[in-house]
Structure formats: structure tokens, C-alpha cells
Write a structure and sequence with these properties.
- The chain has about 900 residues and is an alpha+beta fold.
- It is built from 28 helices and 24 strands.
Length: about 900
Amino acid sequence: MGGLFHKERRDLDFSQELDSHLRLHIEDNVRAGLAPDEARRQAVIALGGVELTKENYRDRRGLPFLEAVIQDVPFGLRVLFKNPGFTLVAALTLAVAIGANSALFSVVDAVLLKSLPYSDPHSLVEIWNTYPTLPQAGLSGADFKNWREQASQFVDMAAYRFVSQGFNVAGQGEPQRLRGTYATSNLVSILGVTPLLGRVFSNSEDKPGTAPVVMLSHRAWQNVLGSDSHAIGRLISLDGRGYTVIGVLPAEFTLANWADLWLPAGQMDIDELTGRVHHPFAVIARLRPGASIAQVRAELSTVAHQAEISFPATNKNFGVTVHRLEDSSAAKMRQPLVELFAAVGLVLLIACTNVINLLLARSSARQGEVALRTALGASRTRIARQLLTENLLLFALGGTLGLLLAIGGLSAVHNSIPPDFASAKEARLNGVVLLFTLAVCAVTGILCGLIPVLQSVKTGLNTALKEGGQGSSTFTIRRVQRFLVISEIALAVMLVIGTGLVVRSFRYLIEVNPGFRSDHLLTMQVPEAAISSNELRQLSPDQLKQFSQKRSLQFEELTARIQGLPGVEHVGGIDVFPLASSMSQSSRFLIEGQTVPIVSARPFAEIRTVSVGYFAAIGIRLLKGRLFTPQDWALPLIVINDAMSERFWPSSNAIGKRVNLCSLAPQPCWYTIVGVVGNVHQFGLDAAPTFDIYSTGGWTPYLVIRTASDPISVAAASVGEIHKIDPNLPVIRIMTADKLLSDAFSPRRFAMLLLAGFAALALSMAIVGVYGLMNHAVVQRTHEIGIRMALGAQRKDVLRLVLQEGAKLVLAGAAIGLLGALALTRLMRGLLYGVSATDPVTFAGVAILLMAVALLACYIPARRAMYVDPAVALRHE
């Protein structure tokens, strides 16, 4: 290594030593009787040549390869800067593609590759029930107890309530609404997480009747208690009841990251905690060393089958599914991210083919230089290494610019990430992303650089030095360039077709009628303090009726106040607004007079509680019968949707029929149908309408306000009227229904915009590649075109000649791309709605569009070829 430093001093020392040896040899030869000139000549021969000996010495004392690299890098930079046009075009092409890949990889790293912040996350699994109509269902409290006792493949097993419960927080500044859940005492310890402050739940707090204690998420600790380091022991008011803060979870605790509050399982309703009818729990377990997912699934399936035999009324048809926690945490985003990453990978391939074409064109122009260096003694290996170094420097420059573009791209991605993809907001250009970018630059630089390098070094010396020579190497380069252009057209066709399918799906989706009028509609959530089922059981029938009546009167007063505001036309309320939540409030029901199936075969309906004015305010159409009146609140009357009416009374009128909504209780509770309304998409515009049952009574927390003008204009006045009734009521999620609908589209819009951006890049690069190839072909065939025109060819003949060559490439690429798209689009069905993965309109439209644009790119150089002056072309040659 020392041979790399102080080279001048070492060269001088060796030169002096060599001169000394040379003098001694000369003196010996003179003493032997030789003439001085002959004595010197013989001495030089004996030493093997002075300069050659010096070169051999330099090679042995240092690191020849490293020295060559040190020489190649500055020379390569000079060559690149000597050709700024070529360098700028190639570097920007690479920068766009590498930057897009780096930005999207940072999202993939944050969502799919980043390890969960728990101890040994690979051994953590998530367990759910399955049901024929539900691929993922919760576990009942009794089943969880059985699993925990009988399963042997786990170190431990814990559970939490996967459906959130809202709590009103008062006494801590402005009224707030927080989401909470319940968990067994061992949940935090199974994950291997230590509380930031305080303690976790104790075993005794898993039992009913436990004291009101709560653990706060890191977010709630900051927002509610202002990051108070003395928060442990403080009382906070949740739904008017005091809870003692016993712990604060760290920020890296991301399980059920929607939960602000964690309460012990012992505070749950007794039916959920110990029964078999309700299925509220998601289960987290840690595998024993050596246990596999297959073993766990087999063991739990056996336990579930035994429960099905023992308790057929409640456990019939329930199965088990087991996933690693690190897999299930990103399951929702895995498919769209993988498909987007594949798309941006295609962009990189197209960019690389363009750069290879540029390098091939430049290598054709540098054939004389390479041949001259070969003639002067440079080996092919040495020349190849120099050219490959130049290519790697070009890709390094593109990667550096790409990282700068990725920073801006990430900022744009962060601003457009939908709420469902919130974990993607953690994407950063960290060390992993930098290593990925370095690997991309190195691999693509080597692979893409080898083709032009090999083509350059195998060029024959005589052919290269011939003035104007058009040898076989030139035709080989043309064949390679044609193949590359066909490839990038095919890749672009595949990507643009995939994007076209997604765009058409999005168009169909936004045309779906949600079932209500979103124009001039303001929504807000006004949650009242909750009362548990345990507390409701302690009320007598009269007390329960008085409680419901009091709530209804309060809500009627609230809606009456808002109804009196200027510009307000209708006001209503519902307990769960359509599209606002994925939470299901389904319940099994029975139809009077129809065969009573077993419990597990009874149908489900979504039960919604509404106010009298709800249907008029939101704009749901009445199809049959009538809507609720103020006198209906205490009566067992319901309104159903059209899907339920068509399914159970397809040939008769549903009005007047009765439905038992307490099908799991010992005593039935019959409700009479008084109306049928239009279907509403409760869980997304791409989800089929459910069976919906509407009843009236009580407090409905989602307000809907129909206005004559801009709905936001009445928001402040409406909040003021609410706080006049109760200043402790939180008012949250104030937004227009149009905004709510827009948020429902956001995941698909996010994927569509990214795909559209990648497709636009791919299409642009493919068109540039076609144009570049045809332009280069025209330049190289100027002599041929001149001869043709001198022999009588017309301009239209030249135009046809060039266009035919371009058309062959475009048609070949389009045909290959269509075949590839037929295979690949089948993998993206999860992103499609209302359109087939092999939609002929999209395939034909994209193919025609791309061929038309590509042929236009061919026309420009073809038009230039039309005006070649034969005399000038022949004189130049």
C-alpha cells in the first residue's frame, strides 16, 4: 500500500540505483575489452531494458489495479464533462428512474421490510377466527380462554379488543374524543415492551369488577397530559368517570396504533369477556422455539373443531387463521406496494435501455479512438476497464441526482398518502435506502455498461481505422439498438395498460352512487358519554325507558337548535356514518314465519340507529312505505334497505312484516317494517351493499346537516349551539360529505396517481428511445440516402423507407407488450373495480395510442431524411 505514496521519491531512488548498476556493467564490459558504445549496449541488454525494468519495478512495488482505477476515474470524469450534452441526457434519464425507485423503496422499507419494534418479532403471531363469509373474525372470550389453556405451541397468549370504543375526555382543556380498547394484562409483556412511565396491568385486573385504571398511548400522553412526567397517579375523566393513569406506553408501541387509551380486560362487558356469542378479541401469541406456523394452525384447528362439536349453536363453521404479526401488520398495503414497486422497476429497465442505446451510439463514434489506443499497445482488458469506469461514473452521477429527486418525491408522497397508509409516512432516506440506491447504481452500471464496452473492444483495428468504414460492428450495434427499443416499447405497453386499467377502475368507482346526496351536506361527530352493558343491566325497564327518552329529548333539542340556524334545511343523526368507519355493527336476525335456521346460519344485518330527520337530511330515497315520525321513537318499528327487501321478500311487499332482532336471546324482540329505503354503501364504494336495518331512539353521535349554500359556513354556529347544551361535549371530524367521499377514494387515488406518473415516465422514455434510434439511423445512413436520391428516389420514398423501419420496431414492441400485459395484469386484480384484467378496450386503446405516438417520434427524423442533399451527402462521404 505504501507504493501508492511518495512515488516521485521512490522513482528517483530506484533510478539512481539502476544507474549505478548500469555503470558497473559498463565498466565490467570496458575492462573486458569492449568499446564504450558497445559496452553500454551490452549492459542495457543485460539489464533487460532500463525503462522496461522501471515499469516492472513499479508494478511489483504497488497495487497495479488500484493505481489504474485512480488513473481511470479522473480520465473518465474528463471524458464525461467533455461531452456535456450526452452526459446530461443520460444522467437525467437515470436520475428520474433511480430517484423514483429510491423514493418508493423507502416506502417499501418503512412498511414491509422494517422490523416491528418488539422483542424477537419473528416469533410473534396474530390469530383470528374465520367464518365462511368472513376471512378474518374475532375470537370470543370463552374460546380465548380455551385456546390459552389447551394450546401447547406458545410461550404465552394475549388478547385485545380489535373494535375501538370512544371516550369523551373532559377536564383537560377542550373536550376531546379518544379511541380506546381493552387488553389482557400480559399483552405488553408478550411483545417485550417496557412502559415509558408506570406499570402495565396486573393479573387481577383481568377479572370483572376491577378498579378504573388506564394506560395511555404515547400520543395521548402528549396531547391530553402535555407529556407530564408525573402523569402516573393522575385522574382523567372518561365519559364522566374518573380513571387513574397507571402507565404510559412508548412511542414505538404500534399495535392497534389507533388506540389512545388501553383499559384492562376486566372492565369489558361481561358478555364479551366470558361468553361465546360475541367475538371481540384479536389474539397475539409468542411461539415456542422450534414451533412452526403449520403446527400452530393444525393444533388450533383441532381445538376449534372440538369447540364446534361441544357448542354447535355458537361455534358452528368457525375456523382458525394464523399469521406472523410482521406479515399481518402490513397485509393491507402489501399488494399495492408490490405492484407499484414492480411498475417503477419497469421504469428503471426502460431508462437503462435508453442509456444503453446512448452508450452504443457513443461507442460507435469512439471506435477510432479505441482502435488507436489498441495500436499504441493498450490491452483490451485495460480499455474495457477504462470504459466501464466511465459508465459507472455516469450511473453514479445519475444516482446522486436521483437521490436529490427522491427527497422531493418523498415530500410529495407524504402529502398524498391516504389515512389507511399512514405507516408509509415514516418513509425516510435512511442508510438502507442509500445502500439500495448504491446497489442499483452499481448493478445497472455494470450490466448496462458491459454491452457497449464489449462491443467497443471487439472492434477490428482495420475496420475501425478505415475512414468512413461501416463494418460488421456497426450493423451489430444497430441490431442491439433495435432489440433494446423493441424491449422498452414492450415494457412501456405493459405499464401503460396496467395504468389504464387502474384509471378506468377509478372512473367507475367515482361514478358509483353512494346511496345519499353528498352535496351541501355537513357532517360532524358529537359523541355522548357512553354507558356500558353492565351498567344498563342494572337499570329497570322503566329506568331504561326514561334513560332512552332523556337522550332522545336532548338530541331533539340539539337538532332543533341547529335547524333554526340560517341556511340550514334539514338536520339528522346516525350512530355510524356511511363510509366513515370500517366498524361493523352487525347482528343476526330472524324473519317471522320463515324456517328458523341454527344460530350460525342466521343472516346478518347492519343495525343503524337514526334520528327522525336523518333520511331527509342525508338524502336517502324512500322506496316503499313511510319514514319515522317523532311519535315512533319508543315503538318497535324499523326501516330496511332495498337489498334486504329484495332478498327476503322478492315477490311481496315487506311493509308490515316483522323481524326478530334478538335472535340470540331467550325472548324474541319483534320489530315491524314501516319503510324501505335505497341501498347505501356502508363500508366503501367498492363493497357490495349490506342488509341494513334502521331504528330510532337515543343519541346518535354523527350529525348530518343539509344546507342551502356552502355547508362549512354553518359549522361554527352549529358547534356553538351544541356547546350551549353541554360545553363538555366534544365536536370532532367536522367535514363536508364531499370531503368524506374524497377520503374514501384516497387509497385508490394514491395508487392511481403513482402508477400514472410511472406510466408517463415510461411512455416518455420509450418515445425518446424510438426517436433517438431513428435519428441515429438517419445520421448513419446519410450516405445511403444520398445515393438513393441521386439515383432518382423521391422524398416520399425516403419518408416511407424510414417510417417502415420505425413501424416494424413499434409493432414488434407493441405485440410483445400486449402478450406480457395479458399475463401481468391478472396479478393486479386487487386494484381493479368494474373492469376486467383483460379489458379489450384498454388493451386496444393503449396499443393504438402508443403506436401513434411512437410513429410520430419516427416521423421527425424521417422528415429530416427527406431533405438530405445528395451532393452534400456524397461530398461528405
